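Ligand-bound model needed. adenosine-5'-diphosphate.
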Amino acid sequence: MNITKICCIGAGYVGGPTMAIIAQKCPDIKVTVVDLNEERIAQWNNPDVTKIPIYEPGLSEVVSEARGRNLFFSTDVDGAIDEAQMIFISVNTPTKTYGSGKGMAADLKYIELCARQIARVAKDDKIVVEKSTLPVRTAEAIKSILDNTGNGVQFQILSNPEFLAEGTAVEDLLKPDRVLIGGDTTPAGEAAIDALVNIYSKWVDRNNILTTNVWSSELSKLTANAFLAQRVSSINAISELCEKTGADVNEVARAIGMDSRIGSKFLKSSVGFGGSCFQKDILNLVYIAKTFGLREVADYWEQVIIMNDHQKRRFANKIVSTLYNTVADKKICFLGWAFKKDTNDTRESAAIYVASDLVSEQANIAVYDPKVESEQVISDLEYIGVSEKGRDRVKSYGSAYEACDSAHAIAVLTEWDEFKEYDWTLIYKNMQKPAFVFDGRNLLDGKKLTEIGFIYKSIGS
Ligand code: UDX
Ligand code: ADP
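Prediction:
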């Protein structure tokens, strides 16, 4: 089948960048991205392309090339579904906050709503592609809803998990290690797979496009994220041991990373991993394992999360104990709030949990992040249940110099490059003494800071 019209439901961190690249690389295909959130769509359509709602290096250039040509953003979900031959579902699937599987299972209500909407609107055959991270066997649920509530048209369901990492989304989409497409092994399923392969092969080598059955594809996505998160938790576990023994975690990471069987990536010790995927996907894996009665499997993966929670708490505790066991009414500056550099996404960022712990010790937190707005900081704290009184202790500033002014300590929570370029002598001058730096990302030059006069504490040394 020759696809000429695509629709993507969900204009978020996954749907937006992915569709922008498909539109850029396939100028003959009309790509319409729809979302219920009117404000978000208005932001995507902002004539000033630097104001699009998602910050990703290189994204605004891609959007400005394709938008209005063959890339469109709209709130007309029904219209876009109706005209498309292929529909991507890129809506959010947060961890459930209620009912059975609370705190563990993925909340599929947005997915189900999409499936019902597609079934209601579709008047001709469609290929439906699940792009969101979903628990294994979701495709089956989508298929059941489509087949039982549809107008008698044929649906093919494909799983096409996204492996892009935020902050490098454009690069990851342009040069993916692999593209994974899962589908039915029937002739109609294989035709649907081919249609999607043809789209990606416009810019990805066919050898890097893997096709599998649906379940393998869905499970591969969860497994990839679980393995990556496991590496971070593994090195973070070693960081605590390093602090007790005098070993340096950066040296250990370098030494083990040069073993080609281990490899050097994802060995950077930190205050803990964040982001919308790692925790959610592992919890999903744990939940699925539990559902099948596989207790050991569930416990094995759950430990990755336990270690991560421990690392965040340990960092907050270290700040309190180093500041003479009290941070009450002290000003602590947070450099960074996003879950990693080069993104404005704050979902599950370690900063939120560290701030919550410090606020419960009655510290005042001064936040500076180059891309995160103050409203976001407050809503993140509210989301995890920090009281209004607690939230009042957290203020955002427009520059790091202001945020650090008269602070007792600085905590580095995100590895933004600009932090390395600051005039640290000036920052030191304006702080309370002794002035502390807790480097949760092992980002700064500890030797230089110590020479200036700071007491510098990194993770894992
Ligand atoms: C991840 C996967 O990498 C991506 O393939 C998937 O599609 C979505 O989930 P993302 O969440 O955007 O991407 O970021 P990633 O770069 O994987 O980082 C996740 C977290 O781990 C961040 O908080 C990061 O700071 C942390 N991390 C990563 C470390 O602490 N140390 C490392 O060595 C690497
Ligand atoms: P992700 O990181 O998975 O892309 P986001 O939260 O950034 O997650 O984006 C998901 C988007 O999906 C949100 O903008 C949300 O408004 C949108 N969305 C959720 N449900 C629906 C729906 N039924 N129809 C259209 N858009 C939806």
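The CA atoms of residues 339 and 349 lie 4 Å apart.
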